[in-house]
Design a protein that fits this description.
8 helices, Rhopdopsin 7-helix transmembrane proteins
């Protein structure tokens, strides 16, 4: 069940990335690029989780490091994309630079953190329990990415909803809350809920994105029809 949910979450993540990537190629805009990279990472970490099968030894230590680092990095990248979408260019540049630097430092630091072979062998959704007690300090670094990323992603979506009262911003905001809550539950209660939280979150945000795309297409068509001279 967990593996099936993780696979589904990964497939939706890559499909979502395909849509945002197409928009980036078509229209440019760095918000689309940030979301595309973040969603590719979403798909990657979901599939890594799905295929960390206890029957074949569970997690490889390096795969776990990639999974753990980028589970946090993707949240910050989605937050950076949200800042650009709100047309806060300077803050967006600063936050994106911060995200990249912290993610790189996090990646390097994870290589020095000891893992727990017993926990890694369990495979699947193990959250941060894959680190050995002497390597548990690495878990504190996730807050440098997940907290600001989540606050910006949630705050930006609800600010947009407050301004426009559009359903799609509300869906994206709720999806962002779900993934943030899943992370909190994984850390303090159980990591078993990660796949369910991930698939609910990515589904809500993807539906919101598709809804927004369709609404913008309709408005564009209406504007083009209004501008067309009468024959």
């Amino acid at each position: 069940m967990v593996s099936a949910l993780a696979v589904a979450g990964g497939v939706i993540g890559f499909a979502f990335a395909g849509f945002t990537g197409w928009r980036y190629l078509k229209k440019g805009r760095i918000n689309n690029l940030c979301w595309t990279v973040g969603l590719v990472l979403w798909g990657l970490v979901s599939l890594l989780e799905a295929f960390a099968d206890p029957a074949t030894g569970g997690w490889d230590a390096n795969a776990y490091r990639i999974y753990y680092v980028h589970s946090a990095s993707l949240v910050a990248l989605l937050g950076a994309g949200t800042v650009y979408l709100l047309k806060e260019q300077k803050f967006g540049n600063a936050f994106l630079a911060y995200t990249i630097l912290v993610a790189l430092a996090f990646s390097v630091a994870s290589g020095f953190a000891a893992t727990n072979p017993v926990e890694l062998a369990k495979g699947g959704s193990i959250g941060g329990s894959g680190w050995a007690p002497e390597g548990a300090w690495i878990r504190s670094l996730t807050f440098l990415l997940t907290i600001p990323g989540s606050l910006i992603l949630i705050g930006g979506a609800f600010l947009s909803w407050w301004r426009t009262k559009t359903v799609y911003n509300l869906l994206i905001g709720i999806g962002a809350i779900v993934i943030a809550l899943a992370g909190v539950i994984a850390r303090f209660v159980s990591a078993d809920y990660i796949p369910l939280g991930n698939i609910l979150s990515i589904s809500l945000m993807f539906i919101g994105f598709l809804y927004a795309t369709e609404e913008m297409r309709v408005k564009s068509d209406q504007a083009a029809a209004a501008a067309k001279p009468a024959v």
